[in-house]
Design brief:
heterodimer; A: alpha+beta; 6-stranded mixed β-barrel; B: about 250 residues; alpha/beta; Rossmann fold; 4-stranded antiparallel β-sheet; about 30% helix
């Protein structure tokens, strides 16, 4: 090896600590980029593949009757139709444990073998299920406490309570995980249902269309088919058109992962800045060596090449360490997202370009960041390099502002005064270190702000809901019968209110009701609810307009979810809404918008108005019940269900507030944890940056320490000076972190607001700031300790012989 | 008196000067006040001379050396070395020129601490590509042999005494076989016996045709030099060559 390469290699060995800092920082930020990029790329491919793999229906038409096989055949032959199948859904309950019941959604299939549209994947057990048995969605198995081969108790509207065998599990990428929706999904044949006393006409027509890429084209085709079906004597009650070819959570998840990818790239940028800062320190330390090399004939390009090669080697080492770590973390993140979205990742293969591109970025980013300081150092004249004593000419000449202030400032302790002044000695390096620590702090604080904002929403929602049980009945029941039943079954009853509910949608014209919802009925559905104007069980906070007045008719109040729903965005009090309610078009006046976090989209009208619109006067299909002691909600629920069933009233579901809370959990925590992961990486990078900056400062000030010692400063004073400098920088970075976190939190809140109906107002959380200080200050002391100890141990002879 | 006025024409010496300065001044801007380090200096140095540059601190000795090696550039005036106007050269051209034409020896040796002595000597050959790679180590060892420290070739500089390090620095300055050797107080950090040895080595190089310029404070080393320049406040106040001529 030629002497110049030998020099660089030995310099790297000689400055092993600082080289290790650079490699660690770059490896950590590289790991972050690989984590997020691999997750983004794999999920961007696998989420649509999973969803398109079930051959999702472009639209589902709810018919009045089950159409004949001949009509179905003619429908399939129509231009524009790629496929048509029948199906049905049925709501019931499933027993979980000796006393508990959960909502059950049964997807009814005419023939498992011929099933093509919205088809699920066999996961375990028998496919197709033998007659008399059903299949359960895999994510519901733990929750339903069922085992393949065992029997479960279910309750259906006509069949009542029956035992049925679980033949196996399936994976249905088209529905959210059961634990998220607190609903058990199961799949059963029409024949089995009929055999068990629950005949069900399959009046749901699942359609695949040739032109299914754009919503307007699908809507137009659905309108044509609905008109044709009506001509054939099969009127369409409702058309359900989900967003075309899009998994229910795909947009949100990809936006979130994309945002995290941007944060991780910022992390890499900070890693590159740290490299520039540390290499800048090394160049400052080696300024005389560079001068000597130039004096004996080295050209600027030769010098620059030496240090760029050093940075390239460091980048390569960082990539070699960070890539596998990032890939492992990326697989973990993918698996977490797959669980959240109920996906099966068939392949974790990365695109061929990712490895070379990420390796390239990992090496090029630090090279680009260091290019300027290296080139400037290499270009310096021999004389300028030799004359450099660590204080820039501009700083030395600066007799104004900061310099004057610092010169006057005395902390009473010479070591501390010196530390304060030294902090501002290398301003470019100070700025870079502050950016590193401030950026890390901003990310950390933002992640905790996000968590705090979400928890505030959950608490807000809980504080607004002054009831313990939400009951939905199969059919509207007379209130006069319900009240004595409730009082009899619930000795601890404090209050109850009727909050009847029915599905609604925007009126599309042409007599067809179109909703933009998925097969599970969620995600895009809209409900009309009867709300007692003087309710004691819900505290509504007005966003605009006013709340309902007793007895008024023809008016609605939107909740925050509805005001963000497709087709309703921008609706204001005073606007008219054309809705499909109970199969009829209705025109209602919007009088207000309320803030109702974590609640599905709903339109509220008075009980009188609701009764008129739905023809259910004196009846209710939904009750909200408050107990004197909320802790026995589960037992009360069991007793109530027994009483209602005893009276022949089918219960669709009964949700305790505890289960509601569980269903809300986890939606945003993936983002919180991922942000905290990136923030943690950046904190590591930031602290390494501080260690590097102080290490460089100590090296540059070696002679100064010698002078201090000759005039009587002890090791303790030197130690105190360096530690204090680290703390001053750390504290300054907190100010920057607060400033950056304010902007970042607002931006993250805006992004989340754009992709979710749940508005999150991210505010600076004092806890986040406190935790960051708790992490940063000991961290700063820890990383300052090494250079401080080194400085304190220098002998006068060593310091004065240094160059 | 020596020639020291810008109006003075370049002396009409028939022998072509290796180094010629004409009306050279150097001024530095500083935060306190502008400073003139050299003022209107003219000078000619012939090949094979062994020149001592002397004077009190701040007299301009190091500035003169820096100008002659291209480390610094004049504020005004001309500097010709082997006929080349180095005051007009760019920094990069100066670097290339210096690497091949001038060997520099510093007071504190300035060997690169992470390279062995032999590697330090090979470094100028490496940067300038003056010798094929396979010839560099044998040449470095040959130079170290001549300077009497070949047995230390594979040691790091820190393992050597001051005198040995300065010998290594001289070997490094000779690596590319330059015509001119410039030394800035090469004995300033050595004891008197070692200083004598090192100065003897430098002076001996003139027998090989090298031109040696040395900044020194030490009058007792005067016998090694064929010519002495005395500077004061940036002006050449005595040149033994012109004094001899005048005498």
């Amino acid at each position: 090896m030629s002497p110049r390469w030998t020099k660089i290699w030995r310099d790297m060995q000689h400055s092993g600590g600082r080289m290790a800092l650079i490699v660690a920082a770059l490896a950590a930020s590289m790991a972050g980029v690989v984590t997020m990029l691999s997750a983004y790329l794999v999920l961007a491919r696998e989420v649509p593949l999973n969803y398109l793999g079930i051959q999702p229906a472009a639209a589902q038409l709810e018919l009045q009757h089950e159409p004949s096989a001949a009509l179905l055949q003619r429908l399939r032959a129509r231009p524009g139709v790629r496929g048509a199948e029948l199906g049905g859904t049925l709501l019931g309950r499933i027993q979980v444990g000796p006393q508990g019941w959960m909502p059950l959604m049964l997807f009814v299939v005419p023939d498992f073998e011929a099933w093509q549209i919205n088809r699920v994947h066999a996961d375990s057990g028998s496919w197709p299920p033998p007659p008399g048995s059903l299949l359960i969605e895999r994510s519901a198995m733990a929750m339903s406490q069922a085992r393949v081969g065992s029997q479960v108790q279910i309750e259906l509207p006509a069949a009542g309570r029956i035992g049925i065998g679980v033949a196996g599990t399936v994976h249905d990428p088209g529905v959210a995980p059961a634990w998220q929706e607190q609903t058990v999904y199961a799949y059963v044949s029409q024949a089995t249902l009929a055999q068990r006393g629950q005949p069900l006409p399959l009046n749901l027509l699942k359609l695949r269309l040739h032109d299914d890429a754009e919503l307007p084209a699908i809507e137009a085709e659905v309108q044509r088919l609905a008109a044709w079906l009506a001509e054939q004597g099969e009127p369409v009650l409702q058309a359900r058109i989900p967003p075309p070819r899009l998994h229910p959570h795909q947009s949100q998840m990809m936006t979130v992962v994309g945002m995290l990818l941007i944060f991780s790239l910022l992390g890499l940028l900070l890693g590159a800045v740290l490299t520039a800062s540390t290499i800048g320190g090394l160049l400052a330390q080696q300024r005389r060596q560079i001068a000597i090399m130039k004096a004996i004939g080295a050209r600027s390009a030769q010098i620059a090449t030496l240090y760029l090669l050093m940075v390239g080697l460091l980048g390569l080492a960082a990539v070699a360490i960070g890539w596998p770590l990032g890939w492992a973390a990326g697989r973990g993140l993918m698996s977490l997202v797959a669980q959240l979205l109920n996906l099966r990742l068939d392949s974790l293969a990365l695109p061929g370009w990712m490895l070379p591109a990420s390796v390239g970025v990992g090496i090029v980013a630090p090279l680009l960041a260091t290019l300027l300081p290296i080139w400037l150092a290499a270009r310096r004249t021999v004389r300028a390099a030799i004359d450099d004593h660590g204080v820039s000419a501009s700083a030395a000449a600066d007799s104004g502002g900061l310099a004057r202030l610092l010169a006057r400032l005395s902390l009473g302790d010479a070591a501390l005064t010196l530390a304060l002044r030294n902090t501002f000695r290398r301003r470019a390096r100070l700025v870079m270190t502050l950016l590193l620590l401030g950026g890390a702090g901003a990310m950390f604080i933002t992640s905790l702000n996000l968590r705090a904002a979400w928890e505030a929403r959950v608490q807000e929602a809980a504080a607004d809901r002054h009831f313990d049980l939400e009951l939905r009945l199969e059919q509207p029941q007379p209130l006069a019968r319900l009240e004595p039943l409730l009082r009899g079954a619930l000795p601890g009853l404090r209050a109850f209110e009727s909050w009847s509910i029915s599905a609604t949608s925007l009126h599309q014209g042409g007599g067809l009701e179109v909703v933009h919802s998925y097969p599970d009925g969620g995600h895009g559905s809209l409900a009309l609810r009867a709300a007692p104007p003087a309710t004691a069980l819900i505290a509504h906070r007005l966003g605009a307009g006013r709340w309902l007045r007793a007895g008024e008719r023809g008016s609605v109040v939107l909740n925050s979810g509805a005001s963000q729903a497709s087709g309703l965005r921008g609706v204001r009090p005073g606007d008219w809404l054309d809705l499909e309610i109970a199969g009829r078009p209705q025109r209602l006046l919007v009088v207000g918008i309320i803030k109702e976090p974590l609640t599905p989209s709903a339109l509220y009208t008075t009980p009188e108005s609701y009764a008129e619109l739905t023809g259910t006067a004196g009846h209710s299909n939904a009750l909200r019940i408050a107990l004197r002691d909320g802790s026995d909600a589960e037992q009360s629920a069991t007793a109530l269900v027994a009483a209602l069933e005893g009276a022949g009233m089918g219960v669709k579901f009964l949700l305790t507030e505890a289960r509601f809370g569980a269903a809300q959990g986890g939606h945003v925590y993936i983002l919180v944890y991922a942000l905290a992961f990136i923030a943690g990486l950046m904190a590591v990078v930031g602290l390494l940056g501080l260690a590097s900056a102080l290490g460089s400062a100590v090296l540059e000030r070696t002679r100064e320490f010698g002078v201090l010692r000759t005039i009587g400063a002890g090791s303790a004073a030197v130690l105190r000076s360096v530690l204090a400098e680290g703390l001053v920088i750390a504290l300054l970075s907190v100010l920057l972190a607060l400033l950056l976190a304010t902007g970042l939190s607002a931006r993250v809140g805006a992004v989340l607001g754009a992709i979710s109906p749940q508005q999150l107002l991210l505010q600076l959380s004092p806890l986040a700031l406190g935790l960051w200080l708790l992490l940063l200050l000991p961290g700063a002391l820890l990383v300052s300790a090494w250079p401080a100890r080194r400085a304190a141990r220098l002998t006068i002879r060593e310091t004065l012989n240094s160059y | 008196m020596p020639s020291n006025k810008s109006s003075d024409p370049m002396p009409q010496d028939l022998t072509p000067a290796l180094i010629a300065l004409h009306g050279v001044s150097k001024r530095y801007a500083s935060a306190a006040r502008p400073c003139t380090a050299l003022q209107d200096l003219s000078l000619r140095i012939q090949p094979g001379e062994c020149v001592a540059v002397m004077g009190p601190s701040g007299s301009g000795k190091t500035t003169l050396i820096n100008l002659l090696t291209g480390i610094d550039s004049p504020s005004s005036g001309e500097i010709l070395v082997a006929g080349q106007p180095i005051h007009r050269m760019s920094q990069e051209a100066l670097t290339r020129w210096r690497g091949r034409q001038v060997g520099v020896v510093f007071q504190f040796f300035q060997l690169l601490p992470t390279l062995t002595v032999a590697e330090n000597v090979m470094l100028p050959m490496d940067f300038c590509g003056s010798y094929p790679a396979r010839e560099r180590r044998p040449r470095a060892l040959d130079l170290l042999q001549r300077l009497g420290i070949v047995e230390h070739a594979d040691k790091l500089p820190a393992e050597l005494s001051g005198g040995q390090q300065q010998r290594a620095a001289i070997a490094r300055a000779l690596a590319n076989d330059p015509a001119i050797l410039v030394a800035d107080e090469p004995t300033g950090n050595l004891d008197s016996a070692t200083a004598d040895e090192v100065m003897g080595l430098l002076a001996g190089l003139t027998r090989e045709g090298k031109t040696v310029l040395t900044v020194t404070h030490e009058r007792e080393l005067g016998h090694f030099f064929t010519r002495t320049l005395l500077l004061r406040d940036g002006r050449l106040v005595h040149d033994s060559a012109t004094a001899r001529v005048a005498a």
